Amino acid sequence: MRAPDLQSFLNDVEQLKNMLEGTQVAASHLSGQGIKLDGQLMRADDIFKVPLLEKEVSLIDFCHLFSIFNSSRVHYQQQHYNSKDSFAGHYYTVVNRKLIQGSVAGKNRFCLYLSSESDARLHISTLHIDRFFLAENAAPGLGSVSFALSAIAAYKLGFTSITLIAAGGKQFNKRHIGAESIIKCNTQPVRYRDGQALRTTHG
Fold this sequence. Notes:
By secondary structure, the protein is of the alpha+beta class. 22% of the residues lie in helices and 32% in strands. It comes from Hydrogenophaga bisanensis.
């Protein structure tokens, strides 16, 4: 069977994006309404420059990339060092006490950073989901739709990797600590692991 060409794949991605944006959950919570970035109310025609890639995106794509729900406050901070639980990179903290809960009440956090694989000269542009919690009464499907739109936005911008740390710290269940998923946005294998490799698929 002939593999689909790149344009067909991009068309499929755009079709999926449109379908997700057309859902009720996206219209209600991921449409870029009432967003404040470092205290400034964002407008629908605002353009944002994404760190690392130096690309410009619309408000709606900015919200999709970092799963910024309507009426959220967003804080930007650059970290210049690596630590045990974080990377040197560009952090966006999303605050929304109605939709986000967890050990840090009302806050989710995302990071953009450059990672190195076996060859230290090869730097991989990465979207890292540092913290992501939803309130128990959040709309069904909100997590799935927001993550899918985030992954699509990251792919279209040119990020080649998405990493997620499932849990860690004093208030988390120890069986979750160190659980990680790595998603490659290009043709590399997609790897999921929780202490050991669970599945490898080739796309």
